[in-house]
TrEMBL record, chain A:
Any single GO BP term: sodium ion transport
COMM domain location: 80-149
Entry-linked InterPro entries: COMM (IPR017920), COMMD3 (IPR037355)
Organism of derivation: Nyctibius grandis (Great potoo)
Name recorded for this polypeptide: COMM domain-containing protein 3
UniProt superkingdom: Eukaryota
Length: 151, 248
């Protein structure tokens, strides 16, 4: 804002105050999910004229959705799984044990941590039965999700 | 001093266990001498001669002596299996040594030899015939061979399970708990509806259980399910089936 040619004439401190005030107003409106009427009322109380209120509200409407998404993504949550990769292998022998002949799966869950931006992936191995158990449980979760969404 | 005849037989997998089996062999005549009070010509240890148990002993052993010998081998066998299951048990060795009236060192060597024999045979998963052929080389009596074979067959599955735990491993799956959550509001945004599935993944790593709490959203969950079902389906494809069949 400080580099904007249109606003060159105004005192930088005042500019900053205005900017901060506007930002706070927008964020509060977004947080409370206020509708146009509420915002208008609020701005009228601040003694802004109708034209400016209309302009403000139009701009707000345009960016409301993006704002809500942004606000919704702020906050702590457990590590979030984004993707899964798997590998199927067939063990033949190890130096301790020959003729094992066992299939096994190596599953890696890609994880995203919004705080640190780190990706501490979780890897584990499992047998076919264990993987079936895992998939069964995830399917149960999905089914209950479906039922909940239909209620 | 290992008799030359033993060195000529078998390739390296068995050479070393023959060495240890040699120790077993040294005990058995000792046990027999002590228990039975007879003097046998112990030809083992003499260079150039085959270390076979004297033929005379084989045929002249009375039923009670056979029972005693069986119990001695049974004792050693039991100690060997316990060694594999739980590790060294010096007190048990001492007790057995006292019972059989021989030195503790001898018992220990014998047990270690038997352990090695069992471990190598189980590791390679040799068939009955191969096992019998291998121990026939040592020239034990038929009954002893049968005892050893029985010991091998009874315990090989368990030994293989124990050995499989020595292989390098990644954390392995133990179980999974899930919970369906809906986020209704947060500090930065009120009036939300954000469904999420919270998952607690229990993993085993080197006998420690770790639990990790993770979260997904519904679409990722469905994606996970689809991917993992694909993984499961892979085992049933022709390619994998062919490999499994040919490997065995």
């Amino acid at each position: 804002i400080l580099d904007d040619p249109d606003l060159k004439d105004i005192d930088p401190t005042v500019l900053k105050h205005c900017h901060a005030a506007a930002a706070t107003c927008i964020l509060e409106a977004g947080k409370q999910k206020a509708d146009i009427a509420a915002i208008s009322t609020c701005l009228e109380d601040c003694k802004l004229d109708k034209e400016r209120i209309e302009q403000f509200c139009t701009e707000y409407q345009k960016n409301k959705d993006a704002l809500e998404i942004l606000l919704g993504s702020i906050g702590r949550s457990p590590l979030h799984i984004t993707d899964v990769s798997w590998r199927l292998e067939y063990q033949i022998k190890s130096n301790q044990l020959h003729k094992t002949y066992q299939p096994s799966y190596l599953v890696t869950l890609n994880i995203e941590n919004s705080d640190l931006g780190s990706h501490p992936d979780v890897s584990f191995s499992c047998t076919m039965e264990q993987l079936q158990d895992l998939v069964g449980k995830l399917k149960d979760a999905a089914k209950s999700l479906e039922r909940a969404s239909q209620m | 001093m290992i008799p030359p005849v033993l060195w000529q037989r078998r390739t390296s997998p068995f050479c070393s266990w023959i060495l240890c089996a040699y120790f077993i062999e040294r005990i058995l005549p000792e046990i027999s001498t002590c228990q039975l009070g007879r003097t046998f010509t112990r030809t083992c240890g003499t260079a150039g001669k085959s270390s076979r148990l004297p033929v005379s002993w084989k045929s002249s052993a009375l039923p009670e002596e056979k029972v005693l010998l069986r119990s001695a081998v049974g004792e050693l066998g039991r100690l060997a299996v316990e060694l594999l299951r739980r590790g060294a048990a010096p007190r048990a060795c001492e007790a057995t040594a006292r019972k059989l009236n021989i030195g503790v060192d001898t018992v220990q060597h014998g047990v270690e030899g038997l352990t090695y024999l069992l471990t190598e045979s189980s590791k390679l998963m040799i068939s009955e015939i191969d096992f019998q052929d291998s121990i026939n080389v040592l020239g034990f009596s038929d009954e002893l061979n049968k005892l050893l074979l029985q010991l091998y067959l009874e315990n090989r599955k368990e030994i293989r399970t124990v050995l499989s735990e020595l292989a390098p491993k990644l954390p392995s799956y133990h179980s999974l708990e899930w919970r369906l959550d809906v986020q209704l509001a947060s500090r930065s945004l009120r009036q939300q509806i954000k469904p999420a599935v919270t998952i607690k993944l229990h993993l085993n790593q080197n006998e420690d259980q770790t639990a990790q709490v993770l979260q997904t959203d519904p679409s990722t969950l469905l994606h996970l399910i689809q991917q993992l079902e694909q993984a499961l389906g892979e085992m049933k494809t022709n390619h994998c089936r062919r490999i499994v069949r040919n490997m065995k």
